Amino acid sequence: MTAILDSQRSARHRALIRPLFAASVAVETCDPQDDPPAPFPSEAACLSPNAVDKRRREFAAGRAAAHRAMAALGLTTEPILIGPKRAPIWPTGLIGSISHCRSAAVAVATKGEDIQALGVDLEEDTPLSDDLIPQICRPAERAWLSGQANPGQFAKVIFSAKEAAYKCQYHLSQQFFGFEGMELDVTLDNSACATSPHAQVTLCGRFSACFTAERAPFVTGDRIEGRFAIGEGLIATAAQLPRVR
Predict the structure, then answer these.
(1) Is 243 annotated as a binding residue?
(2) Any idea which positions bind CoA (predicted)?
């Protein structure tokens, strides 16, 4: 019975996240609290020998979701290793992103015909600690938060959205930078994502992440657009860059 309930929970997580991405993007989930399928040995070797059980479960669930995304695209499942900068290495011809937290894992992937970069992030729907807000949010973002009924929750949305946008840009720039490197405009808009009868969605919206400095090939003022959804105990954020025709 527990496995059935966990499978249902994972399906609800997928229903929450699926509308945030384009139709060409495969979106798959796995529940770390269930018993995720074992990763490939080469994937498991990427983990520290001292990794705790929680880390191992989340890692396995993320890789299982990624394997399901490959299968959904009609591709043979391959290992996803970790590069020298700790980012996942997707097979040639695939663009993807993975995220996991205590209660959920998600992977998104596309063959890239119409999208050149992706980023996804999942966080537990809990307020961001007050002491972290100045580290995560720029002054304009903090000013926006001050007008919200639940500033801690929306600070977590900003945190998650920056994570998703960062992953998206990294595919092209291969550069690290801090939270000050992007400034977000957040719009609360329940029409931003189609609601699903299979997930309890409490709030949706859009965000626009603006580069505050040059990160080649991005220049100051360039933007990455994204969407977010809150529901099922999660904050889910999605960023994608369409391919320029």
Answers:
(1) no
(2) 55, 63, 99-100, 121, 163, 167
Question: Residues 14, 70, 243, 167: is their CA dihedral positive or negative?
Answer: positive
User: Would the pTM count as exceeding 0.85?
Assistant: yes
CB atoms within 10 A of CB 118: 25
Q: Do 140 and 69 share a domain, yes or no?
A: no
User: Residue 197 is encoded by which pair of tokens?
Assistant: 């009868």
> How many DSSP H helices and E strands does the chain contain?
6, 10
- The answer to whether 156 is annotated as binding is no
55 is in an annotated binding site: yes
* pLDDT tens-place string over residues 84-101: 888 999 999 999 999 999
* Whether residues 125 and 219 fall in one domain: yes
Tokens standing for residue 108: 């998104």
Q: Is 121 annotated as a binding residue?
A: yes
Q: Are residues 182 and 106 in the same domain?
A: no
For residue 102, the enclosing domain spans 2-113
161-183 pLDDT tens trace = 999 999 999 999 999 899 999 99
Residue 208 assigned as binding residue: no
pLDDT in tens, 129-150: 999 999 999 999 999 999 998 9
End-to-end CA, the chain:
49
Cα–Cα distance between 60 and 39 in angstroms, integer? Answer: 6
The reply, when asked if residue 102 is annotated as ligand binding, is no
Beta strands in 189-232 (DSSP E): 201-211, 223-231
| Measured CA distances, 132 to 30, 158, 203 (Å) | 29, 12, 23
Q: How many CB atoms lie within 10 A of CB 41?
A: 8
